[in-house]
Specification:
The protein is built from 17 helices and 14 strands. With 498 residues, the protein is of the alpha/beta class. The protein folds into three domains: 173 residues, NAD(P)-binding Rossmann-like Domain (Rossmann fold, 3-Layer(aba) Sandwich); 98 residues, N-(1-d-carboxylethyl)-l-norvaline Dehydrogenase, domain 2, CATH 1.10.1040; 136 residues, Roll (Thiol Ester Dehydrase, Chain A). The chain has an eight-stranded mixed beta sheet with strand order 3-2-1-4-5-6-7-8, with helices on both faces. Strands 9, 10, 11, 12, 13 and 14 form a six-stranded antiparallel beta sheet that branches. α9 crosses α10. It starts with 5 loop residues before the first strand and ends with a helix. Bound molecules: 1,4-dihydronicotinamide adenine dinucleotide (NAI) and the ligand C[N+](C)(C)CC(=O)CC(=O)[O-]. Ligand L46V6VHR binds next to α7. Belongs to the 3-hydroxyacyl-CoA dehydrogenase family. L-carnitine dehydrogenase subfamily. Pathway: Amine and polyamine metabolism; carnitine metabolism. GO terms for molecular function: carnitine 3-dehydrogenase activity; NAD+ binding. Catalyzes the NAD(+)-dependent oxidation of L-carnitine to 3-dehydrocarnitine.
Length: 498
């Protein structure tokens, strides 16, 4: 049984809303305090966008959402919480008042993270009577998609608090990065501020528009940064001689007066208005929700590729996918007959020239459903590392109906038979109520080192046998055991000539 955590969110704006969505979609309960009169609607919109993005990111059933409650007072929201996330405006006065109230009302074991972008833990602690449980947990927007959280503690914190925080964050798919020492703006905002400062100068000096600066990022180095960051990218840029050569070649330029990093242009009303005008010209054809959707779809695409390549943030997504499977396996629906273990939203890139899901994607959906089944019966990385796996030796697919982009597909799975070494699975792909395909698959258990068939190991064999026995009470599904329909073959060439 996976323990459901009790989360509290104080502040539910851009960042608080993102935390709330991530917690809920991971299956944990969230209690919210935000005095904004529209807080429920604003948070509801963020959750809807986040759920849409998660359906595109994770090709599997999501656990039932946790319970969301709104409270009129901060004390009621944080009562009984395991984790409280503070995301109120970035003003030290407000942070002190709110964090003091949280630390006074939350249980002694609660972890209290502040989303602050720039304040050090000691800045926060200076205005709090009970600072030991309050630390910096700085996320990135959109919080429900980007895994990073910078974790910073100060001298007043309990020992080991960041390690505890890391463990909780891993359960909601986030990567805690412990910052070794307190500094203003942690690590990432130092870097972001440097680029932001330079961007403001380039607009101020009339060198580039907001759109041109964004193009300079998104068509070039921004793409590199998402997957390798700064130093690994430059190591490669040093060629065969590597990083040392890169520094020799480009290091001296750092002393040239290229940048204006120590200064910031006067943010006059005129400059702010000009940046606003350029930004409207660049992005004003899309409303905020459309821009958020475009951003989320692009991020999901990157994350999916990084996951396929087992690289960077994609590893966090893969780990979260396993965590979510665990949560779903605890839910009653995992025991239904037939099993429903796999769901996927059809990306536009899966469509063919007819505008329908192309044929090999049907097999991909079935293959992923088979993997979900194998995980369900206990075939995990440890089992495979011990030299045991399954190979598919035969497949018969019936393509029954068209599937459009963005369709949410679910797969029902029956065990039609099993013996010591073989497993016969039957999948039905459903688009709502419509059966759009069926697939029947024979899988062979193998000893991968010896390269030959071998019996399933216990307890996998017992779980498969139990499911096979339960599923044998079901009528044989339509299409099971079928072969491709015969049509008359053309006469042989010689006969045709005669
Ligand atoms: N917006 C961003 O890109 C990022 C912001 N952050 C940090 O997150 C925190 C929040 O920023 P945003 O979400 O952008 O601000 P926001 O203005 O969107 O949201 C702040 C929310 O706090 C609520 N609030 C105000 N006083 C409150 C109180 N006393 N108790 C409870 N709720 C209260 C407001 O009603 C509002 O909904 C800040 O510390 C900021 O530095 C961190 C990462 C990125
Ligand atoms: C602008 N900002 C300092 C609030 C940005 C962040 O803190 C992180 C982000 O999401 O870019």
């Amino acid at each position: 049984m996976t323990e459901r955590l009790k989360m509290a969110a104080v502040g539910g704006g851009v960042i608080g809303g993102g935390w709330i969505a991530r917690f809920l979609l991971s299956g944990h309960d969230v209690a919210v305090f935000d005095p904004h009169p529209d807080a429920r609607r604003i948070i509801g919109d963020v959750i809807a966008g986040a759920e849409r993005a998660w359906h595109r990111l994770f090709d599997q059933p999501l656990p039932p959402r946790g319970t969301l409650t709104f409270h009129d007072g901060l004390e009621a929201a944080v009562a009984g919480a395991d984790w409280v996330q503070e995301s109120v405006p970035e003003t030290l006065e407000i942070k002190h008042a709110v964090l003091s109230a949280i630390a006074g009302a939350a249980p002694a074991h609660a972890l209290i993270g502040s989303s602050t972008s720039g304040f050090k833990p000691s800045d926060l602690h200076a205005g709090i009577a009970k600072p030991a449980r309050v630390f910096v947990a700085h996320p990135f927007n959109p919080v429900y998609l980007l895994p990073l959280v910078e974790l910073v503690a100060g001298p007043a914190n309990d020992d080991g608090i960041l390690e505890d925080a890391e463990r909780v964050l891993a359960r909601v798919g986030m990567k805690g990065l412990k910052v070794r020492a307190e500094i203003d703006a942690h690590i990432a905002d130092r870097l972001l501020e440097a680029v932001w400062r330079e961007g403001l100068w380039l607009v101020n000096d009339g060198i580039a528009t907001t759109a041109e600066i964004d193009d300079a990022i998104r068509y070039g180095f921004g793409l590199r940064w998402a997957q390798m960051g700064l130093f690994e990218t430059y190591r490669i840029a040093g060629g065969e001689a590597g990083m040392t050569h890169f520094i020799e070649q480009f290091g001296p330029a750092l002393k040239w007066p290229w940048t204006k990093l120590m200064d910031v242009p006067e943010l006059t009303p005129e400059l702010a208005a000009e940046i606003g005008r350029q930004s409207d010209e660049q992005s004003g054809l899309h409303d905020l929700r459309t821009l958020e959707r475009i951003r989320d779809d692009n991020l999901v695409g990157f994350l999916r590729v990084l996951r396929e390549n087992d690289w960077g943030a994609g590893q966090s997504v893969a780990e979260m996918s396993e965590t979510l499977r665990g949560v779903v396996d605890d839910a009653p629906r995992a025991d239904t007959t037939p099993l429903r273990l796999h769901e996927v939203t059809v990306p536009q890139s899966w469509l063919d020239y007819n505008g329908h899901m192309t044929e090999h994607r049907y097999l991909q959906v079935m293959g992923d459903a088979t993997d979900a089944f194998l995980a369900h019966v206990g075939m995990d990385a440890g089992y495979r590392a011990a030299g045991r796996s399954v190979y598919t030796v035969e497949t018969h697919i019936r393509h029954l109906d068209e599937v459009a982009g963005d369709a949410r597909l679910a797969v029902e799975t029956l065990v039609l038979g099993a013996d010591a070494k073989r497993l016969r699975l039957f999948h039905r792909i459903l688009d709502g109520e419509r059966v759009v395909a069926t697939g029947e698959h024979m899988l062979m258990h193998v000893d991968t080192a010896a390269g030959r068939a071998s019996p399933f190991d216990a307890p996998l064999s017992d779980r498969i046998a139990a499911l096979a026995a339960r599923h044998s009470a079901e009528p044989l599904p339509d299409g099971a055991g079928g072969a491709i329909r015969a049509i008359a073959r053309a006469p042989a060439a010689a006969e045709a000539r005669g």
